TrEMBL record:
Protein name: Nucleoside phosphorylase
Gene3D superfamilies in the cross-refs: Nucleoside phosphorylase domain (3.40.50.1580)
Record field: transmembrane: 100-120, 126-150, 282-300, 346-365
Keyword list, A-Z: Membrane, Transmembrane, Transmembrane helix
Length: 643
């Protein structure tokens, strides 16, 4: 086999050399324990040797390969969309052995010994040798079962809650379990290749799933996440570099893994099953192997016993021996079968003990796992974002203020997604809420790039739980209000729809527009968060009716007329009605939160930036305190049938 170290697909020889490089790294023990953790029983490893893991991953393109001195290993969710790619029988067998290494370690020696012993059965001179060969795997399985049970009952692993949380996260996210780079100047390059490869793998899986299912994913985008295992990084320098580059990915203080967000990905992998009783299933598998081996030994004993005397209901085949063992497992005598050998009583007694032992193991495993999941729920509350928030802005001042406020808080750069119907800024997750920002191209509500069209397109693509329009507005109560104070709509009155009448020599306008109310839950959340906000920031928040008019107000007479006609109004803007039309049509919850930059007369720009910042900070405050986490329902993008 020719070596291809510089290529993108390494050979088995390359993988052997790469495994040696990992073993020689400063953190090799910790890395090996991460990539090859102990199985549920704790006696054997959960994965195959590292060289085999790397080789199988390379065939499946999950190994991001720069060479012997630089590579990263990606692990998929347990359930992936699309059929697993076929690379040949050898790859299938190697992958099966790797993914089920504990079963391989238990069954492969037992099966080999079983076949050899069975082949010796016709030769009486080899019976003793066959018994010894069959007894060896029985002792091995007994060791696995006993060792696993002892660890389950008596050994408590303080880090196991992290492992359970990792399985919860890995059930729906890809995992980077190994990161090795000898040249520190190429750390960023390798991680960039990890990002690119991850998006490639997800796209491949989703395309395969669509082809098999007759589905097409029409611009279905969600936030992608990669779970990065800190202990899988072979050098402290590389781990520090990744943490420096992605400071927002820390899952929880002191945790040994982080969650790195990616811009977009098409479709979504199904959530994989969490193995709640993994040790219990492993134990049952061992019991099955014990039954088969004991049945073989019983069969040999019955052949010898019945050769010396006449047996009325002989156990004269291996199938009869298995049936006899199965009945004895539940304390029953099989009809038409009578075991007469000297060892039959001992085998039957052993089978009678297996049932209560198995029940005890399953009970212990269930109790332990339930406790672990409870600890995970307390320590790792959230797992992935529960809600999505779409923030809508119009002017450059408003948009830049929102981006600056969220970037300062998350310590990450907002990423722009141009693949959606409209460009969207991804501001990152905050308190279990994924935050997105869209900027309308025109002020008001009637132009082609105004709020209704832009917000509607963004809502359709992102499927947010709720939406907020924020930015600047004018106030209508200068005696009670001041510049930069925050206004939240409890109602919005549409001033554009009106009936024009003539009364004598005068034109009279009669309102015909709606008076709409925001989401009750969002309004209540904003009111509840007001007290803490005002105590910490000394910026008042006013709630009341907002006027929405597709006209820029900058005249004292107009403002006086508005105050006279709408004495309850606290302020006004140009986009409120259009925003509410978009969220109502989409069936999601929405609210208007803006700050005063002027009072509808003698306008200047001096207060626009501070007002926009205050409004953005109040939206961030609502997200931080969790006021928006459980508002609305997650509206995941999904496929549509291809007709």
């Amino acid at each position: 086999m020719l070596s291809n170290s510089a290529g993108d697909v390494p050979t088995l020889r390359d993988c052997l050399r790469a495994a040696k490089a990992v073993s020689a790294s400063p953190n090799s023990k910790r890395v090996m324990a991460t990539v090859r953790p102990r199985a549920v029983g704790g006696v054997v490893r959960d994965r195959s040797p590292l060289a085999l893991i790397l080789y199988v991953a390379a065939l499946d393109r999950r190994l991001v390969w720069q060479g012997i001195d630089g590579f990263a290993l990606l692990e998929p969710p347990p359930v992936r969309p699309g059929r697993t790619r076929w690379w040949g029988a050898r790859h299938w067998l190697l992958n099966l052995a790797d993914r089920h290494w504990p079963a391989t370690m238990m069954l492969a020696p037992s099966l080999l010994a079983f076949v050899v012993a069975l082949a010796m059965t016709p030769f009486p001179a080899l019976r003793l040798t066959a018994v010894l060969i069959a007894a060896a795997p029985l002792l091995w399985i007994t060791f696995l079962m006993t060792g696993g049970l002892v660890r389950q009952v008596f050994v408590r692993d303080s880090s196991h809650s992290d492992a359970v949380a990792l399985r919860l996260l890995s059930g729906e996210n890809w995992t980077m379990s190994l990161f090795h780079q000898d040249n520190h100047q190429r750390d960023d390059e390798l991680f960039d290749r990890v990002r690119a490869r991850l998006l490639e793998l997800i796209s491949r899986d989703v395309r395969s799933f669509g082809d098999e299912s007759g589905l097409t994913f029409q611009e279905a985008h969600i936030t992608g996440r990669l779970v990065c295992l800190h202990d899988g990084v072979t050098s402290d320098r590389a781990r520090s570099r990744l943490a420096e580059r992605h400071p927002d990915t820390t899952w929880i203080e002191g945790a040994r893994f982080s969650v790195s967000d990616f811009p977009t990905r098409r479709g979504d992998a199904e959530k994989g099953p969490l193995r709640l009783l993994s040790f219990g299933r492993f134990y049952v598998l061992c019991v099955g192997a014990v039954v088969l081996i004991l049945a073989l030994m019983l069969y040999w004993g019955e052949l010898s016993a019945c050769a010396q005397r006449t047996c009325a209901a002989p156990v004269d085949s291996y199938g009869d021996a298995v049936i006899w063992m199965a009945y004895r497992l539940v304390y029953q005598e099989p009809p038409g079968l009578t075991a007469v050998s000297a060892n039959a009583t001992a085998w039957g007694w052993m089978m009678g003990l297996l049932l209560p032992m198995t029940a005890a193991v399953v009970l212990v495993a269930s109790v332990r796992k339930a406790g672990q999941l409870r600890r995970v729920a307390v320590r790792y509350n959230g797992g992935s974002a529960k809600a999505r928030l779409l923030v809508v802005a119009v002017t450059e001042v408003e948009c830049s203020a929102i981006i600056d406020v969220f970037e300062a808080y998350t310590n990450r750069t907002a990423e722009v997604d141009y693949e959606l119907s409209v460009p969207v800024f991804r501001l990152g997750p905050v308190s279990d809420v994924e935050v997105f920002l869209v900027q309308a191209g025109d002020a008001g509500s009637v132009d082609v790039a105004a709020v209704p069209r832009v917000a509607g397109d963004a809502i359709r693509d992102l499927k947010p739980s709720c939406a907020v329009i924020t930015g600047i507005c004018y106030g209508l109560k200068p005696k009670e209000q001041d510049f930069r104070q925050i206004l939240v709509s409890s109602r919005i009155r549409d001033l554009d729809h009106a009936k024009m009448l003539q009364s004598g020599d005068m034109i009279v306008s009669q309102d015909r527009g709606e008076v709409v109310s925001p989401s009750p839950r969002l309004l209540q959340a904003a009111k509840t968060a007001k007290r803490q906000w005002e105590r910490e920031n000394n910026v008042p928040v006013h709630f009341g009716q907002m006027l929405s008019w597709n006209k820029l107000v900058n005249a004292e007479l107009v403002v006086s007329d508005l105050r006279e006609r709408y004495p309850d109004a606290i302020g006004g803007d140009m986009e409120g009605t259009g925003f509410y039309a978009a969220v109502r049509w989409a069936g999601i919850e929405g609210i208007l939160i803006k700050a005063i930059s002027d009072f509808g007369q003698e306008k200047d720009d001096s207060h626009q930036r501070p007002a926009a910042v205050n409004a953005a900070r109040y939206v961030l405050h609502l997200v931080k305190v969790g006021a928006l986490t459980n508002v609305g329902g997650r509206r995941d993008a999904g496929p549509t049938g291809r007709g």
